[in-house]
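Bug #77: duplicate submission created two jobs. Keeping one. Sequence:
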Amino acid sequence: MTLEQMETSAWLNRAFYKEKKVRALRSLLERDRARAQGLAVNYEGIDKGHSDGRENGVEAALQICAETSETYDKALCEYDTIRREVSQVINGMHDDELEALLTYRYLEGLPMEEIAERMHYSARSVKYKHKQALDKVCTILHCIAP
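Kept job's structure:
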């Protein structure tokens, strides 16, 4: 793969990796919410969140939950923006076959072997078409941002 193809691939992969971060943050948010709810349900005037007694554990857990929620919302917005950018470029290729290949690869995160199976091609053909698609995207990106 050429340097330009690798850079194009990295640009396209942004949505895939941002989605991984969003999923991780959603998992963390669910854990933080469960912890805060558990503390609130068990709260009987005795702080179960902090042993030093200086800070209310329920309030601290709710604050952590709010901060995680804010981080999650921000990452989700970033993901939506990146996904739209990547989708627009892929859809701007005007080649259904290459668009499908790039969608499988960069928006669904499928390995080349599975893409080959879904598209009824050999893995070698998919890798060749992938390089063609990257060259075409590179041309599109240079037209967008010279």
